[in-house]
Predict the 3D structure of the following.
Amino acid sequence: MTGLSLINPLFQWAVFFAASLLSLFCSLMMVTRRNPIHAALWLIVAFFNLAVIYLTLHAQFIAVAQVIVYSGAIMMLIVFVIMLIHVESDFVRTGRLSGAKIIGAFITVILFLEIGAALYSGGGAPMKAAGPPAGPEQADSVVRVGTVLYGKYLFPFEIASILLLIGIVGAVVLSRRKND
Amino acid sequence: MLQGIPSILYFALSGALFTIGAIGVLTRRNGIVVFMCIELMLNGVNLAFISAGDMLNSMDGVIFVFFIMTVAAAEAAIGLAIFVLLFKLKGTVNVDEINLLKG
């Protein structure tokens, strides 16, 4: 393998633990903060940590796209909308941990236990590699992504561009003034 | 000698992120925070795709995450436009008070 595998495994473990614990901590802070702006800022930090974890998985293209698309574009849009509609006014009167919330959180923890059980039961099964190991000529992850994206997945790629166009048109139609 | 990181840890982290997002969706009542929690759940799924792709030595995981990101961007544009519209209409984004379709 290439890239990070050449690096000392101890460093790899340190990076993984720091990034994963930070991303878990930041997402917990995101869920528990009252102020939506604080929640959005914690979520941005969680997205950056996830980008680091993608780097440890040899997915350089996705790591950069994570920073640009999620931390840059989507979170900028969310922070902008929070700024537009002053939601600070209604987070004050909601609050109070109600019984329904506790029950909902408990049911979701059961969901996590189910995921864990599925991992535990399927984790022992041997997984076959789909292709040959990445040789030195395939070392550049972006080149491999582009080759697959514009080759095997060309038609879904075109569909995705149409989807984005529909998204743009839909956002404009939804937010235009009604009195014209 | 220390081995590489086992992929079960990545899957566990992915499940934990998904669960935290789901808890947020169920417990928070601010529509925009619910939206952010859905983004966190999508990221948990993305992490599962990437780690499976790395484990199986396949590029398909990266491609799927690319398409998920595309859908998430379109969803953010439409969803936030809907929230702005709802705020103009009702003056709130609290999901408990948004019951326009209720007869």
Observations:
- Chain A has one domain: 3-121+138-175.
- Helices of chain A lie at 9-32, 36-56, 60-84, 88-91, 99-122, 141-149, 154-175.
- The mean pLDDT of chain A is 82.
